Amino acid sequence: MSADDDAPDPIEDAATRWAIEQDAGLSDDGIAALEQWLGSDPRHPPAFEKARAAWRFMGHPAIRSEVTQRRLSEPPLPGYPPVGRPEGKRKWIAPAVAASVALLVAGAIGDWPTALRSDAMTATGEQRTMTLADGSQVQLNTDSAISIDYQPDRRIVHVLKGEAAFSVARDPRRPFSVEAKGGSTTALGTRFIVDRHADRTQITVTLHSVRVAAPGAGASIAIVKEGQSVRYDRNGVGSVRTVDANAVSAWTRKRLVFVDQPLRAVVAELNRYHPGYIGIIGTDLGNRRVSGIFRTDNPVAALDTLQASLKLASIRLTDRVIFIHD
């Protein structure tokens, strides 16, 4: 798990700041500052249009009004121009870009390109277990997809996105391999988890061993045994390390286990299971250490537990969009 994988993009952050500022009404200085920002980088205009579309999608009047009123009721942040009302004060919750985009993608567009390529797929917060033709089992985690390519002499499953746990039926005549982002994991009579991220893939073995191969400048092959994990990316296969496989596989039992993790990493993981967005206001708060066990099928209840144990408050724009703060 890595909070960095789910961290908001700074350009999208700024774009949604401006989209909501424009919706609330910009002063002359604000309009000039927006135009300057749009012209300062060719990536800014498309990001701004995407943010405007996302904000419109979120656009239940009560939600939009509450965000705007909260923003106008607090002292202005340094470095940002005032909004249209000269007397207005504001506070912007930076991670709202992730909320807007997540809601737009999950609620309106969906991942149709992946859906067309997949043989099995889960939505956000959904988990699914399926038995393949050879008796092997695959458990898909939230927002995951696979395609299946069984041939007379081989068995291949492609992880198109997300995370999947495999329990492989033995068949010496037909090797079982899982492919993701150019790499391949071949079962040696085993149970293992493949977690595909945007920039890397992580393999964790919970029983017996696997052979992991990937092209790149680094090591190209590694044997990973029970209780071990390895990552590969465009640079090749990394170093094999010992992990708590029981904790890594906890999601297969609808649990998430955290031991002395920063709150931002915990919230990033909860966001994988929440059909909306959970954000943190404040860098220092995101660094606070957390240990606990939470259920994957009720991320809002997990957040309630975190709030109570850490004595935090929250802003809830319905249970779909939640910001926690001191």
UniProtKB/TrEMBL annotation:
Highest taxon, organism lineage: Bacteria
Residue ranges of every copy of the FecR protein domain listed in the record: 121-206
Pfam families: FecR
InterPro entries from the UniProt entry: FecR, Ferrdict_sens_TM
Region Disordered, residue ranges: 1-22
Acidic residues compositional bias, start-end: 1-12
Gene Ontology molecular functions: sigma factor antagonist activity
Protein name: FecR protein domain-containing protein
The organism of origin for this protein: Sphingobium yanoikuyae ATCC 51230
